[in-house]
Amino acid sequence: MSRVSKPYEIVERALELSRADGCVVIADEESSANLRWAGNALTTNGVTRGRTLTVIATVDGAQGTATGVVSRSAVTVDDLEPLVRAAEAAARTAGPAEDAQPLVADVPSSPDFTDAPAETSSAVFADFAPALGEAFARARAGGRELYGFANHELTSTYLGTSTGLRLRHDQPNGTLELNAKSPDRSRSAWAGRSTRDFKDVDPAALDAELATRLGWAERRIELPAGRYETLLPPTAVADLLIYQLWSSTARDAVEGRTVFSKPGGGTRLGETLSPLPLTLRSDPNEPGLESAPFVIAHSSGDDSSVFDNGLPIGPTDWVRDGKLEHLITTRHTAALTGLPMAPGAGNLILDGGGERSLEEMVAATERGLLLTCLWYIREVDPATLLLTGLTRDGVYLVENGEVVGEVNNFRFNESPVDLLSRASEASRTEKTLPREWGDWFTRAAMPALRVPDFNMSSVSKGV
Fold first, then answer.
1. Is residue 428 helix, strand or coil?
2. Could you tell me if 208 and 457 are in contact, meaning their C-beta atoms sit under 8 angstroms apart?
3. For residue 370, which of 12, 230, 380, 448 sits 20 to 30 Å off, Cα-Cα?
4. Are the C-beta atoms of 143 and 182 separated by less than 8 Å?
5. Tens digits of per-residue pLDDT, 239-292?
6. What whole-number distance in Å separates Cα of residue 397 and Cα of residue 220?
């Protein structure tokens, strides 16, 4: 594929080459820029470019419609026809696709479909990098070491189909993870941010936050496992509720396999999950968290279908005022279950908390734990969505409204659905970066939650 080949031309050419009954072509033009640092000094930086082409061929037969999906990177012009033929061959040797539906049609074309892809570069760090250097100097003077990385990606996705769809979406995605350590490495604190352009990220403010946490950790307190009143910060709430969203597929619920299945049959739609007036929602047009306004599916699974490519995505309330409103539902699962169609989206927001900040919640705590983040989250029981995982980079004891020291880390065992039912307070909502799922899902806004009896099931020796 020539460097001068425009993405929309590649899509059009692949569609022209197709001999299948139906065809979907997705061209992802990707660029990224990154900075890495350790011990208060930059270590590496880099910029990358790439293109991935996905061809989805559909072949009709007496038993139904089959699909073949082939994705390749670094495809040349000479490779384009073999790629299309490979997708067609895969479709012809496959059995009928269970999720088969007519390809989406009659969606207005994107006006910028023929424009050049958007690209990021090291210029995205023009203001951030000098501010980071100043943070290094302050950290060095304060006797702490900063480690971390900043990454900015920009993906322009071009989607074309044999039914006439010509859609395009530009998705910026920036993440910052900053870790401060004491020189002897006995104390560690973490902060992360999600951003579209690094213009809203303040390294000085993050460094000050981490310095405060390292100060708290100068006093060490050992606590046993048990149930504690716990303040979960927005990043931890995001990690738990993102997993809940991923587990909320309609078909699995209808077939009795998940926490959203009703005993005896059916689903828990309409049930109250939380006494707080919380609304868990997705909206492609959410300011600062914008995501693709149409389905982009490179493969089919429980929560997506390649036949739905190009299907418009609107705002969806998964939980509204504490009640379960929707489950992730493709066109196929909607037809199968009778539930309304609700495709998954690329962001997640939890609204309905109060006006207090996390700091104000700490000040109102008689005795409890303040977490920094969660990691190594794994599913234990899908029927209850019981998850296990570890705390990391700082668990602090709060007494009479003040942090009095750092305690040991814990392994936890909790279900996010159960946590919603027991949460007694939520702070105001703010943008956050999930620590565990930040490589896959970054666009989230969450409040902090107060849980009266969070289950710290065992002590962990991790830092």
1. coil
2. no
3. 380
4. yes
5. 999 999 999 999 999 999 999 999 999 999 999 999 999 999 999 999 999 999
6. 10
What are the strands, taking DSSP E only, across 196-273?
A: 220-221, 226-232
Radius of gyration of the chain (CA): 24
How far is the C-alpha of 254 from the C-alpha of 135, rounded, in Å?
52
Q: Which tokens hold the place of 257?
A: 């396999």
Phi, psi of 42 (to 5 degrees): -65, 140
Q: What is the pLDDT of residues 429-452, one digit of tens each?
A: 999 999 999 999 999 999 999 999
Give the angle subtended at the CA of 189 by the CAs of 183 and 192, to the nearest 5°.
Answer: 130
- Multiple choice CATH, 7-214, 3.30.2290.10, 3.20.20.140, 3.20.20.370, 3.20.140.10: 3.30.2290.10
Handedness of CA 309, 105, 284, 157 (dihedral sign): positive
Where are the domains positioned within the chain? 7-214, 220-241+353-460
∠ CA 66-68-70, rounded to 5°: 170
pTM of the model: 0.96
Say if residue 18's pLDDT is above 60. Answer: yes
Written as one letter, the residue type at 144 is R
Contact predicate 350/286, CB 8 Å: no
Q: HSE-up of 448 (CA within 13 Å, CB side)?
A: 19
**C-alpha torsion 243→245→251→253, nearest 10:** 80
Enter the DSSP assignment of 246.
H
Question: Which tokens sit at 433?
Answer: 């970066």
Which sign does the torsion angle of CA 177, 243, 234, 211 carry?
negative
Q: How far apart are CA 151 and CA 439, in angstroms?
A: 11
Task: Give the Å distances, CA to CA, from 387 to 256, 284, 325, 381.
Answer: 19, 28, 23, 7
140 CB-near residues (< 8 Å, 6+ apart): 40
